[in-house]
C-alpha cells in the first residue's frame, strides 16, 4: 500500500525555522537596491502585507497582480523583479537552514517522530480510525511504503526522512491487529525544485497574471509554475503525479491550499474521485485552539477545509458531498511530522 505525504512550509515552521513569507519579507526589504523598479516592487509587497497577505501563495498571487505595473515594452523589468526575489529567497533560506541538523537531537525525539509517521491517523475520530483499519485489513498481504512530496525548496524534510529510512527502519506496523513491513522511501520528490537547483515560484496559470501583455518572449515560463516545470524538463511534476496516482492514502501537511498551486488540488480531487477506496487526510493548522465543546463550530471548520480543496475542481454539489466523506481533517496535530528540536544543532 502506498501512502503519500504532501508537505509544505508548515513543516519547516514546526521545527522552529523562520521560513514564513513574513520572515522573508522583513529581511528582503532590508536589503539595499540600486534599481528604482525593484524598490517599487518591495513597496508593493509591503502594501500587500498591510492588507493581510501572510502565506507564500499570497506572495505568488501578488507576483501575478504586479504585472500590471509593466507593459510589453518593459517586461524585462518584470522579469528582473521576479529573479531578484528568487535569488534573495534562495540566499535567505540557505542561511536560515544551512545549520539544521538532527545529530544532536535526542533519540527520544527522533523515536517520537517515527511513531508519529507510523501512526499518522491516530488523531482521527474513532469512526475514521475504524475506516482506516478496515483499509489495512483489506490490504493485509501487502507492505506499506510512505513517500514524501515536498513543496519546499529546502532540504530540511529530506534530512528528517533520511533518518526514518535508515537501518533499522520502521520494521513492523500493527494497524487493524495485523503485522506488516513498513518502510519510508528516502527519495523526497521536490515539485518546485530546490535551493540549489531551479527553485520555481509563481502562479498556477495565465489567468493569475493580470497583465498578459508581459507574457511575451517566454515570460510565461518564468512566472507560471507548471510551464516552468515543463520548460526545465526535469519531470518533477510528472514524477509527483505518478506517485499520487499510485497512492491509496494521501496526507497533506503544512500547506495552505492556495490558488497558486491549484493544479495540485485539482489533481488530488480527481484522484479521490477516480477510486472510492482512496482516502485523503489533511492536517490543518488553525493558529488557535479548537473548542472541544462547540460541536457546530468544529463541523463547520472541517467542512470549510473540505470545500477549500474540492473547490478547485469543477464538481457538482452531489459530488462534493460524496467526496467530503473521504476527506478527513486533523486540526493542529501534536504528533504527526513533529520533532522536539530543543536539542537541535543550530551553531
What can you tell me about this protein's structure?
By secondary structure, the chain is α/β, with parallel strands linked by helices. The chain folds into two domains: 207 residues, 3-Layer(aba) Sandwich (Rossmann fold); 112 residues, no CATH class. Helices cover 45% and strands 11% of the residues. It is built from 14 helices and eight strands.
Spell out the blueprint of helices and strands.
Elements: E1 2-7, H1 9-14, H2 21-28, H3 36-50, H4 56-65, H5 75-97, H6 107-118, H7 126-138, E2 144-150, H8 156-165, E3 172-173, E4 180-184, E5 189-190, H9 220-223, H10 225-232, H11 236-245, E6 249-253, H12 262-274, E7 279-284, H13 295-310, H14 317-324, E8 327-331
Parallel strand pairs: 1-2, 1-6, 2-4, 2-5, 6-7, 7-8
Antiparallel strand pairs: 3-4
Can I get a quick summary?
By secondary structure, the protein is α/β, with parallel strands linked by helices. The protein has helices at residues 9-14, 21-28, 36-50, 56-65, 75-97, 107-118, 126-138, 156-165, 220-223, 225-232, 236-245, 262-274, 295-310, 317-324, and strands at 2-7, 144-150, 172-173, 180-184, 189-190, 249-253, 279-284, 327-331. It folds into 2 domains: 2-15 and 100-194 and 234-331, Rossmann fold (3-Layer(aba) Sandwich); 21-98 and 199-232, no CATH class.
Amino acid at each position: 500500500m502506498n501512502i503519500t505525504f504532501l508537505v509544505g512550509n508548515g513543516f519547516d515552521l514546526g521545527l522552529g525555522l523562520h521560513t514564513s513569507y513574513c520572515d522573508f519579507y522583513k529581511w528582503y526589504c532590508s536589503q539595499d537596491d540600486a534599481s528604482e523598479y525593484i524598490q517599487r516592487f518591495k513597496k508593493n509587497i509591503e502594501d500587500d502585507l498591510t492588507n493581510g497577505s501572510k502565506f507564500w501563495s499570497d506572495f505568488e498571487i501578488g507576483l501575478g497582480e504586479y504585472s500590471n505595473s509593466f507593459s510589453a515594452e518593459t517586461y524585462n523589468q518584470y522579469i528582473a523583479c521576479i529573479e531578484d526575489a528568487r535569488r534573495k529567497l534562495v540566499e535567505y533560506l540557505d542561511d536560515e537552514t544551512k545549520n539544521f541538523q538532527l545529530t544532536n537531537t535526542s533519540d527520544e525525539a527522533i523515536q517520537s517522530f517515527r511513531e508519529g509517521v507510523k501512526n499518522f491517523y491516530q488523531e482521527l475520530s474513532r469512526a475514521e480510525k475504524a475506516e482506516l483499519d478496515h483499509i489495512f485489513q483489506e490490504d493485509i498481504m501487502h507492505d506499506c511504503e510512505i513517500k514524501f512530496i515536498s513543496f519546499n525548496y529546502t532540504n530540511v524534510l529530506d534530512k528528517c526522512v533520511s533518518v526514518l529510512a535508515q537501518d533499522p527502519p520502521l520494521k513492523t506496523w500493527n494497524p487493524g491487529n495485523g503485522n506488516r513491513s513498513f518502510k519510508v522511501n528516502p527519495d523526497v520528490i521536490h515539485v518546485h525544485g530546490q535551493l540549489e537547483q531551479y527553485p520555481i515560484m509563481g502562479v498556477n496559470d495565465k489567468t493569475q497574471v493580470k497583465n498578459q501583455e508581459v507574457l511575451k518572449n517566454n515570460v510565461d515560463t518564468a512566472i507560471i509554475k507548471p510551464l516552468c516545470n515543463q520548460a526545465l524538463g526535469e519531470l518533477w511534476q510528472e514524477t509527483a503525479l505518478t506517485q499520487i496516482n499510485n497512492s491509496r492514502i494521501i496526507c497533506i501537511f503544512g500547506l495552505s491550499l492556495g490558488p497558486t498551486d491549484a493544479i495540485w488540488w485539482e489533481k488530488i480531487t480527481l484522484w479521490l474521485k477516480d477510486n472510492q477506496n482512496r482516502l485523503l487526510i489533511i492536517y490543518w493548522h488553525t493558529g488557535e485552539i479548537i473548542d472541544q465543546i462547540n460541536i457546530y463550530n468544529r463541523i463547520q471548520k472541517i467542512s470549510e477545509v473540505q470545500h477549500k480543496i474540492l473547490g478547485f475542481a469543477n464538481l457538482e454539489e452531489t459530488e462534493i458531498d460524496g467526496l467530503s466523506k473521504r476527506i478527513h481533517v486533523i486540526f493542529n496535530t501534536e504528533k504527526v511530522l513533529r520533532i522536539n528540536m530543543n536539542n537541535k544543532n543550530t551553531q
